[in-house]
Amino acid sequence: VVSGHVYTNHWAVRITGGQEQADRIAAKYGYINFGQIGSLEDHYHFHHSRVVRRAAYSLKGPHSFIHMDPEVDWAQQQVVKPRVKR
Amino acid sequence: NAQSDPSVIHFNDPKWSNMWYIQCGDKSSRCRSGMNILAAWQRGYTGKNVVVTILDDGIEKNHPDLAQNYDHLASYDVNGNDHDPTPRYDSRNENIHGTRCAGEVAAAANNSHCIVGIAYNAHIGGIRMLDGDVTDLVEAKSLGVRPDYIDIYSASWGPKDDGKTVDGPGLLTKQAFEQGIKKGRKGLGSIFVWASGNGGRQGDHCSCDGYTSSIYTISISSTTENGNKPWYLEICSSTLATTYSSGEFNERKIVTTDLRHRCTDGHTGTSVSAPIVAGIIALALEANLLLTWRDVQHLLVKTSRPVHLKADDWKTNAAGLRVSHLYGFGLVDAEAMVLEATKWRTVPPQHTCSQMPERRSRYIHAGERLNSSITTSGCSEEPEQHVGYLEHVVVKVLIVHPRRGDLEINLISPSGTRSQLLNKRLFDSSNEGFRNWEFMTVHFWGERAEGTWTLEIGDSPSKQRNPEVLGNLKEWTLILYGTSQNPNQPYSAQHSRSRMLEIPAPEEILVESELEEEDEYNSPCHSECGDQGCDGPDTDHCLNCVHFSSGSLKSGRTCVSHCPLGHYEDIASRRCRRCYKGCEGCVGRSAGNCLSCRRGLYLNTLNSSCIDTCPPDYFADENQRQCLRCHDTCMRCLWSADRCTACSRGYSLAGMTCVPECTNGTFFHLEEMTCSPCHSSCRTCTGPGKEECIQCAEGYLQQEWRCVPTCSPGYYSGEAAGVPHNMCYRCEENCLSCSDPGTTCTRCKEGYSLVSRTCIVNASCNNADEVFCEMVKSNRLCGKRLYRQFCCRTCLMNG
Q1: How far apart (Å, rounded) are the C-alpha atoms in residues B63 and B73?
Q2: Tens digits of per-residue pLDDT, B349-385?
Q3: Shortest Cα distance, chain A CAs vs residue B134, angstroms
Q4: Which of A32, B417, B520, B691 has the most CB within a 10 Å radius?
Q5: Per the residue annotation, which of B56, B161, B204, B333 is the catalytic one?
């Protein structure tokens, strides 16, 4: 937990093996796979509707096990980045 | 300072005369030096076929000044996860920013709406990504939208400028940048333009904004009409160039399109400058589509100039370039950009020389300066990493410190040029220090890299601190980017097709002549010698050959099992005969017998000849040295079948891609990659919905964002300039039906009554005495909407 951060219910994950593999792992932990992130190969956008949309800390639950799945190279819960218009 | 003749170009757009920053530069103008945009237009460059997108809170795609150039293929809604970037409308007009930026780039010209964009014939799109939670994933997605189609991404946002934030692109976004640079624009590299770090607050330093400090982004700052530093501008060593923008209340502003089909001069700050440069780069890309992302930065460095911009830190670096922390290399020059672009030669490949980190931990004493040096050869021992001439310099630091805002960091090059990487920040009381934060500077552009670099860190407490807790420079790394050769020397003929036929290597030179007769010899012969024996042990002593004879008397005759390159095997005479010039492999002497070509030439499969320029519909494949056919949608292409420079009939060029020209009543459907029908009420559209019309079908009128058969109550029908159909204009307030031209109401809403053809609130008043009514009528207050409640009904009803 980093103070001042706002945690969302979106994840970025890196899974090799293609879309189907990603879909399978998403379903396994209750996520929905929103597809590849732009042109970043093997990187996927997962969304978990049962995790609160914004939270001051990273909630734990069955969805957290995705971080430990051997088939997941990397997973990052998305944090809101404050942005201002110039 | 090219003096363009503004009288030559005049558009009927209502705000044309307010666009001082485009017409700047002529004798009568208050601003002395222009950005020479008019001159670039006069040379014929208006951004045709170039695709620009705005990363922001959306774009009003049917704004009358944007619709013509709007490109839905350059748009996406990351917040809504669909293809429609239309902003979310709300009472506070939160999402006006993207539409304002878009207008600066590509508002259509001469259509009697608002303004003229810098690249008024470019494709313009929008990526809606600020109107929701912005995360690393959202930014990465936004930067990765259709990199082979979109040429330029313009962003006018960044981390908070509260003077205490240090933030930048996350892991995914950094990868998206690198992916865009390596693969975008089919290998030429996506162009990322970024507004340098301001946000309406002071006391910040934009080196703490990781987007403008990236070597992949072109960071742009602003100056006012009089060349002064705007109050909001932050100093920054990564700023590359500058444009005009808003300034003090008495200085003229920038005008652009606004949400709800309007026009505004309320667009300010460096948010203005990034889209202006995006538009100027679009003009340069039109002049030369093959510019790489580094070519564009070199062009900006070469053509921007200080003119009358006032800064007390202008200096000349060792490459003779004037540069400042406020304005980079100075005010952009559109005409110079397009002129240079037309004859530009690709700069040599980028090399990266990363020095071993300096890991000796050093205390930073309050009130003192710490110097730490690294000496480098510019990686001259590694050809692939050797940096002889500098472009960007990055310093990555690991500093522990009790109050980060007290630090100032400078970098001094071997040539003695000094660049301030960080200035003190009064509001930054963070004790996090800098954890592998990367500072970037462009101030050493063109200088030589080798020598001793000095990092100078100052610590001057702005508040009382515990003297026992010292700052500590744990580690710093110097990363040099640049080229091994001088980029100003001609490097590659990639752009110029004027390559001469290469002179063959000596071993290939053969003079055409008949072979001499053989001599006698008795000792053992070489295995290639034929039955007539030899006069020596080697193959050039044979009297006849088993397989083939090669060479001539002058260069020496020899027997070979296979003929050398540039020759074919004449089975009948058992001799190696020379191919036609330019052929490397052939089956005969004539030009049409080639099988492969020498370097620099390409095999034309139509007639098996070697040529240096492929015919139309073909491109020169470097690997196979062959002319290969373009994609069937391409009429002309370069480097690969799908990098088009001209399209076949029925397709139009966007970037280097050919997309179908959908006829009226259809739109290009992305998923199906075909033309799909619009809604029946649309003549042209961006999608199947009835709210996605651009122009209305015959018999329909445009009302707000739809095409309707008849105007709704409260609207009247009227002509509209520049569109083939009528528009439904709103009657005056509170009026239910009116007749043309809209000022004569015929029926009012409930609670209002019609008096002298206007709708007056049904209130009567009790102070309508003679004097008051006289005042009301003599001043014609009832004709002004604001004053209508002044007893108008009573006064007018009573004559």
Answers
A1: 17
A2: 999 999 889 889 999 999 999 999 999 999 999 999 9
A3: 6
A4: B417
A5: B56
